[in-house]
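so im writing up the methods section and need the Two component phosphate response regulator record in one place, dumping it here so i stop losing it
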Amino acid sequence: MRKILFFDSGEASRGIVSALAELVGEEDIVSETYSSASRGVASAISEPPSAIVIIDEGKGKMLGDMSVWEVTARLARHMSTSNIPMFKIDEQQLKEIAQAGEDYARQLFDKLHNEKKRMLLVAEDASVRRELCTGLDSFYQVREAETAIGAGTELLKFTPDIALISYALRDDPSGGFMFCESLRSDNRFDALPIIGLGDFPEDKRYCLDAHLKQPFTLEEVHNTIDSLLKKE
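--- predicted struct ---
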């Protein structure tokens, strides 16, 4: 019997379980709820579930002994989550599911699963790209590039909803600034939210929507992304 794993302090509603069972195409399925994040992660690693749901109560609230993003990063590092649907829903969405029932839950999870926001990640440092992709890939469609030229090639193939761009790019003598400025001068991307990573000088940050100076945490990255996408 397969399971759906919940990271939450309460009990999973029948509407959520039924909607997810339909999404993953399994009838004989049970739910397990963990208020202790470390126990939930250990369970997922030892016996991979059919789906994972993380309830994010916001305002930096912990899932027992870990933050929301520590949970996702640890899961991604220790197990292959690429074939396991992972969802993050907030308290408002949880209330709407409780009020509207299973049909709403089905529509919500289907949308979260099939309509992930598209992200462009540009960083020369392979370890930075690897760390960010590990923590972001479950929730976004991530295209990565290590140079400005490579990023330009990716932009011919897709249109991102948000971009993360490092200041250290070997083919941009301005350190990533010229590439950001070129995006702002292109009417296809002039409204694209851009997060600058690393040592962007203050006088070069006007082309950015947000800036994260290293060392930054995965939680800071996620919170910044969430904040910018909610403004759209």
